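Give me the fold.
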Amino acid sequence: MKTYEAVVIFSAEESQHQAGREFLRKEFETIGISLKKEEDMGDRLLSYPVRKNDRGHYVLYVIESPPEPLKALTKTLKLRPEILKYLFVRQDN
């Protein structure tokens, strides 16, 4: 298993932000991704509008997973309205 850092930008609206975080935690558990750390980085102004939003709520995740579940997860994240952007980066061990 490889270690990844994931930064996810959720909608700044509180109800959508909480729903998105709950969805992501359940999705990690469902597809077998081990969540090592979750750090709330807060609400920030975006550099440019994303899906007509100028603010987003940033959350940093440190996860362990084989590469295949991440490919499936990225397809799912594209369809979620409360998730504005995401980025997965493999950590060097």
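The chain has one domain: 2-90.
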